[in-house]
Amino acid sequence: MAGLHPCCDPTSPSAIWEGTPAGKIIKIDGIETYVARPDMLDGRSKVKLPTLNQESSSRQQFNRVILFLTEGHGIYLPNAQLLADSFAAHLGCDVIMPDQFAGQARLDKDQRPFFPPGKEPIPETVPWTEDKDDPNYELRGIRVPLKENTETSDVYPFRKPPWWQKDESAEEFEAWKGRHEPAVTDPLLARVVKYIHEEYGQDVKIGGVGYCFGGRYVIRLMGSGVIDVGVVYHPSFYTMEEVRKLVKGKRLAIYAAETDDILPPKKRRETEDILKETGTTWTSTVFSGTTHGFSVRGDLTVKEVRLAKESAFRGAVSWFKEWL
Q1: Is the pLDDT reported for residue 42 higher than 70?
Q2: Known catalytic residue at 260
């Protein structure tokens, strides 16, 4: 890697989608976790979340849960929270989105779009979605004209977290990534899975959705038998050995970008070949005019990007409804 990849760079341009997240942050065995529930989205009501083992019987009425694993920016990126809300609304089940980076996501919880005092711009409204059934639709504001091209817009620059090294090198980024490899992340996610089983029952069906970095861990959890149905968006850093652990009976949907140096066409096609060999039920979709990160940080004023983001989201909803 020649330099810091923009997929994990909080100073890189990234559109902040319009909408007010309705979920809540709880702690699961010390892990900060964003939880979205259908009842939270009904009139945007304030719902008190139960702690572990409280109201367990009421939560166990749900026979499925979505485990949402984020890309490198983590659970405090507003777009990720809005997506979690939308999955909860459309699937009618709870969505559990843990901080798989243990407090060192590329954006920390105090991260917000930042401008020097007196320099705050008056932003144009960025539409959230064309889908009027989406729970965030009414809060998205007015529409702006679509740009029928694939240019990238610098909507809001991100402020770096306090722990960020100035002018971080590729070596420093690799060191960060190394701190979140399977040896560290797998045990953390095991604690979250344990919570899900205790809170929702041992027979709960867990669906996994993962973006970029999180996509690898959805694949790993499928290979270990924790998840049978998964959806991954431009997944990153996974190995072919991890893909080979997916066998007949597993169901995986992949949504990829046309231009993605982390998931280039060669690796994606090799992945598809292995899925075919193992007998996995799978689908793979590539959207033209998109780059890595389109499904969670794309500029929704660009027609191609918005179409891809919405199509990929609806595809995931359909995939879970059919198989989970």
Answers
A1: no
A2: yes
